[in-house]
Amino acid sequence: xxxxxxxxxxxxxxxxxxxxxxxxxxxxxxxxxxxxxxxxxxxxxxxxxxxxxxxxxxxxxxxxxxxxxxxxxxxxxxxxxxxxxxxxxxxxxxxxxxxxxxxxxxxxxxxxxxxxxxxxxxxxxxxxxxxxxxxxxxxxxxxxxxxxxxxxxxxxxxxxxxxxxxxxxxxxxxxxxxxxxxxxxxxxxxxxxxxxxxxxxxxxxxxxxxxxxxxxxxxxxxxxxxxxxxxxxxxxxxxxxxxxxxxxxxxxxxxxxxxxxxxxxxxxxxxxxxxxxxxxxxxxxxxxxxxxxx
Amino acid sequence: xxxxxxxxxxxxxxxxxxxxxxxxxxxxxxxxxxxxxxxxxxxxxxxxxxxxxxxxxxxxxxxxxxxxxxxxxxxxxxxxxxxxxxxxxxxxxxxxxxxxxxxxxxxxxxxxxxxxxxxxxxxxxxxxxxxxxxxxxxxxxxxxxxxxxxxxxxxxxxxxxxxxxxxxxxxxxxxxxxxxxxxxxxxxxxxxxxxxxxxxxxxxxxxxxxxxxxxxxxxxxxxxxxxxxxxxxxxxxxxxxxxxxxxxxxxxxxxxxxxxxxxxxxxxxxxxxxxxxxxxxxxxxxxxxxxxxx
Lengths: 294, 294
What we know:
Prenyl_diphosphate_synthase (chains A, B); homodimer; two-stranded antiparallel ribbon; mainly alpha; magnesium (chains A, B)
């Protein structure tokens, strides 16, 4: 990874973590609820979604505090989805990134409610941001609810569950990933550009870009589950295989999956060209998504 | 109950149920998710919250389709909270209103996701309503997220859980109810009036009214658990006692609880007088809340 990209990622990550902490600490809510919300928010992660949102914004607008509320809201929604995903009734995971999952650290009821609270609070944050116009708030909330709701992320989670323990086609697999992980990435890219006043044509190009970026992210996730370093990725290598999960390497072979990923990288960069702006950071982030080792 | 009030309740209930069905049926989402969302939405209930919202609106504005999206969003959020509340990790209920609870009809994972979907979709509905201005959308979404989030309903649920199996004071009990059930009633009353262009002073009076209305609702719930007709209320009479739940009759005796309720009715109506409008329907609804037998 280039030094400049590493610096960029680290500085944005710090900024986001500071702002998330400030926003949730300011809540006057029952202490146990706040503790549980903060526990999962502070449990690490690369903050890729809010970073993408900021990078997309900066492609069109100059650096600004205007993106913070949307970036925080996005990370809160991502975090709630992980908490609910880890529940015994869902993936039943006891650890995430080497730390106890929320329901193991607290209890199931608290984890369910902490997730509900994070989801609801994300809309409150955007609706209360004094830096946004009413029109901008509505545009962001519309996108956020669409991307994370029944026709977006939650829909993808239902499809993912239904696909467990059976063979799915590559088309089905891509539909699941498009909804389950792609929609939040789409929100990151398009809402950043929207706040930066990108034109409809530019937004269209970026939406296409975000589609391929989501697929790159997922193929690399599947590849890392085969050839990744267990220490680095923070979960058992080979768990997809033992969970009988449908993956790209399983459907296409490892080489086939790697080729497919490069095909997506090319398509993502082609879409970026149509975005008609200095896309160097988004391009560097695409390579980072494709080559990441954890 | 007066015939005119009964007619009002029935006609509004039908309208709301028709609009909810239309809104959720229009979703293009995985069939199982839609089925699970609709199952709980159609599982009955008196639709009191959206009816209150409409009645509050009509106190200031004339009947209009403008309130529909907020009314639907409110009922969706109420329904999601019931689905999550019934989960094994929470109240562990197998039946609600004589029908299987969502996780018993489907499974726990589906119930969790159906709740998440209803919550998220409620914000999408408001943000997409062509009858509202951007300012109105933002005002409604702000109120809705505040009343239903960590500082509102979800906060109340955490406090309620923490209060289980221990004695709580009357102050604690009222705080729990204020958050757990009162906040959504506050949303109903204040957002209806807001859309009807009530003045800040009128809104203040109605917010005070909604506080007492929430308490009336809760005291009557507790009273019905002691002297209610099991058939009518659709749950086992005496379940609070056997669940060691803190209730008004337990803290004040049955007579004391009934007196307390009348005190709240008087305070609610006193607040209504300050609302400076024709509050006859809100006043009739207050009596209905106080005297309902199921």
